[in-house]
Specification:
The chain has 2 helices and 4 strands; from the N terminus they run E-H-E-E-H-E. The chain has 74 residues and is α+β, with helices and mostly antiparallel strands. It has a 4-stranded mixed sheet. A hairpin with a 3-residue loop joins strand 2 and strand 3.
Length: 74
């Protein structure tokens, strides 16, 4: 499982879906950051992403993207 960090430019919806491998869900994180994950990751039985889970303080499965600075979605 991969965790990608983006801070310079907001990904498009299509790019975000490609990065997480499905429909995008956005989780607000401390320090004005966000995390994008596959909203159906559990249904798809994706593996636990330990790095993303530690960042979010909850179980995250599949690939995740951490957005900060200019890359945050509104």
């Amino acid at each position: 499982m991969k965790t990608t960090y983006i801070k310079e430019q907001k990904p498009t919806l299509k790019e975000a879906q490609e990065l997480v491998g499905g429909y995008v869900a956005v989780i607000d994180l401390p320090d004005n950051k966000q995390m994008m994950v596959d909203e159906e990751g559990l249904l798809k039985r994706k593996e636990i992403n330990r790095e993303a889970s530690a960042i979010a303080g909850q179980v995250i499965v599949g690939d995740a993207v951490v957005l900060s600075e200019k890359a945050r979605w509104q």
